[in-house]
């Protein structure tokens, strides 16, 4: 039999006693397989970034999801502030400054709460309602929208309130 080390080499030889099967095609004996692969460094940038992200997601799922959630939460808050400022200017008002502390609060919330809680909740849903269940999609949607979302919204307001009070206490002193 061939070893794992031999698999990436060209030509690839199978010993006479071994079989090689790929889909519907099998070969017995000595086979030469041309192997052509694109080196990762020659791939487009967006493909390499996606590949690296998926690798990190596989190796460190909670940390990767937490950091992603923190970044996206902060960017979402900044984008909403920019849109709101443009709307004020369009209506004749003065543009307000960007609240970097607000974006930081959203980043903290996404990093510490949204990423890990969502990870574990959706994993738990996979266990409770496997995809083999005929109504799993409907059940998951109902569980998510009727129970998880309202509870998550309460946690959001609670944590944001704590973070804002802490911010005001720091500014006051």
Explain how this protein is built.
By secondary structure, this protein is mainly alpha-helical. It folds into two domains: 1-37, no CATH class; 45-172, no CATH class. Helices cover 64% and strands 5% of the residues. The chain is built from four helices and two strands, in the order E-E-H-H-H-H. The protein has helices at 45-59, 61-90, 100-128, 136-172; strands spanning 19-22, 25-28. Strands 1-2 form a two-stranded antiparallel sheet. A hairpin with a 2-residue loop joins strand 1 (19-22) and strand 2 (25-28). The chain is extended and about 55 Å long. The chain starts with 18 loop residues before the first strand and ends with a helix. The chain crosses the membrane at residues 142-163. Keywords: Membrane, Transmembrane, Transmembrane helix. It comes from Scomber scombrus. Belongs to the peroxisomal membrane protein PXMP2/4 family. This is Peroxisomal membrane protein 2.
